Amino acid sequence: MKKNQTFLTILFFSMLSCQSLLSQNPLLIVTPKYYVGGSQTDLPLGPDPFLDYQGQVSEFASIAFPDAAGNLKFFVVDGLIYDNEGYLLGQLNIVAKGRSEVIVVPKPGSCSSYYIFAVKESGTTAGDKLSSTEIDFSDYSGENPTRLGLVIPEPNPLLQLGSKQKNMHLALTPKRVDGSYVLCVGYSAGCSFFKISNLGITTMAPQIFNSSFGVNSDFHLRSEMEVVPFINGVGQLNYKLAIPFQATIFAIPSILEKTGVWVPVLDQNFNLLNENDYQYSQYPVGSLLTPKIRGLEFLENGRKLLITHSTNPLSYPFAIDVIEFDGGLANIIQPLNFINDTEFSNSQIENLDLAGQGYYLINENRMGKVSYNSITNTFTLNNNAFPASVNLSTLNGSALPAYNIQLNMLPDNIDEFSYDNLFINGSDIQCCIENTTYNKITYTNTANGIWSATTVNPISGTITNTVTIREELRIKRGTSIAIQNMTIKFAP
Length: 492
What we know:
The chain is an all-beta fold. It starts with 7 loop residues before the first strand and ends with a strand. It contains one helix and 37 strands. It has one helix at 429-434; strands spanning 8-9, 12-15, 27-30, 33-36, 39-42, 62-66, 72-77, 80-83, 88-91, 103-106, 113-120, 129-140, 148-153, 159-160, 169-172, 181-187, 190-197, 200-203, 207-208, 226-231, 237-248, 257-263, 265-267, 279-282, 293-299, 304-309, 320-324, 333-335, 350-354, 356-362, 366-373, 378-387, 440-444, 449-452, 466-474, 481-484, 487-490. Strand 10 (103-106) and strand 11 (113-120) form a beta hairpin.
């Protein structure tokens, strides 16, 4: 009696490692392109010219988000959400123009869902609103039923500001020990905090500004805020915020203005510590020529803060300053005196790993990069790191020129955080599996064959010595496959 046999000549089987090579967000969106390293790529165009992405330039806010391998997973342009091939998945509530970045947070407890936070404009006389939207990649889009990515807007705002308050700014903590995140929201009277955990989004106790800082009542505060975790002198986790303030001392017309940065320290539950544990730095009170802060970015785990601001040739000819929070010059705003830095006076700042790690800025035609040498405590500026373009975000439609303020926005990045932690959480193998790209989910051969590292194989469809399979490789009884000089990797 003849027996059916299966023959395999295999060099190596292995388990696919649950490790990501991401550090910070490897993607930077500057519509209609996005950047990976120093290389630019066109954002994908969808097939439907009326629904899908067609190369529109963002006028409000945008962000690109990676998958576990660092490739584009989805992106947001002016409130519309698109997948990695440019198909429209759905939309957010209307995004306020030039107010704040869009923030993306992986939903704790889920391997396939994300929260998207954006500031919503409520008209010229009402205050801004903070809105949230969930996108679930385990279900199909309502806009494109063949595309994964169900968009679920939350109908009620998380936060509603008072009348005519138009200066909401957002910042997100890295993932915390319990797997949660905290969304920090700065606004006129203080700061609110929202804990994002596997229980959903819950409101934490708000903190109120010290009244001596004044109230950010100006429409034309166009800036950003930052948050960074650090370990204090007794080994406790604290958080440091950088919140811009801009207060008109006299009402319109603005005769004197007070601008600066409030830098409070909070405990791990986001309770404000006593007044000896926070700083604020202020530019001298002056006229409309007082610098207006546009960008903020912590470095050295919160020991320093970079600032970009508007300039004038009389008293503030340089656009990039630094605040040191330790040492003899603590809390004093110091200009870095870079030549030609005024070209970035309207730019936000982001710590990115593009053309090398650095603190990036953007103007109308290129990116600049500030580098810091911690050994010599010196800064350098490359004002032409690589070409880029940005659409100017302004609050238009006002009869007052002071309210038509330019802000060159950059998508927010989570500081002091490795983005591989978004997808791989310790022993959370399922999230690793679902956020890893495989050549095949399963594969069953159909005939005898030879698979070799030097010929096209049926699993990847390319010439390669390594292929990946998520679940099973099945060899039909009665067939034989010779696999030569190849590695086949499976999910854990």
